[in-house]
Amino acid sequence: MKVKRETKRLYVGGLSQNISEADLQNQFSRFGEVSDVEIITRKDDQGNPQKVFAYINISVAEADLKKCMSVLNKTKWKGGTLQIQLAKESFLHRMVIQRISQRTSSSVLTVNVKQRRQRLRSRAIQERNG
């Protein structure tokens, strides 16, 4: 039986400043296929790193996702305490999906209008010739 995998976006907080994409890739790849790691460092007014977190895209089965969150969440790792949760959909991601959806629906409408015109023309030709 094939296990259904879905791509999930995880928020991983509580990271230390010296964490790398490779570290996160290795840590999470034992639960699923990691396709993207994005590390974000928020700095204070003086430019000192204040908060380090990451977003990870992982293709994972539901059972493995639960296992990942229960095993890694709130554990100490490389100088930080991990906080893992499903990430909220980003505004930019929502906009991209909305634009694609609008393009698709407008192109479908265009095709339908062209098909209707063709049918009407062929009927008119048939009536003239018929």
From TrEMBL:
PROSITE patterns: RRM. GO terms for biological process: protein localization to nucleolus. Its main location: nucleus. It is found in: Nucleus, Nucleolus. One of its GO terms (molecular function) is RNA binding. Residues 8-89 form the RRM domain. It comes from the Eukaryota. It holds the Pfam family RRM_1. InterPro entries: NOP8_RRM, Nucleotide-bd_a/b_plait_sf, RBD_domain_sf, RRM_dom. The keyword RNA-binding applies. GO terms for cellular component: nucleolus. The keyword RNA-binding applies. Keywords: Nucleus, Phosphoprotein, RNA-binding. Plays an essential role in the survival of diffuse-type gastric cancer cells. Acts as a nucleolar anchoring protein for DDX47. May be involved in regulation of gene expression at the post-transcriptional level or in ribosome biogenesis in cancer cells. Interacts with the GTP form of RRAGA, RRAGC and RRAGD. Interacts with NIP7. Interacts with DDX18; the interaction is RNA-dependent. Interacts with DDX47; the interaction is RNA-dependent. This is Nucleolar protein 8. The lineage of its organism: Eukaryota, Metazoa, Chordata, Craniata, Vertebrata. The gene is NOL8.
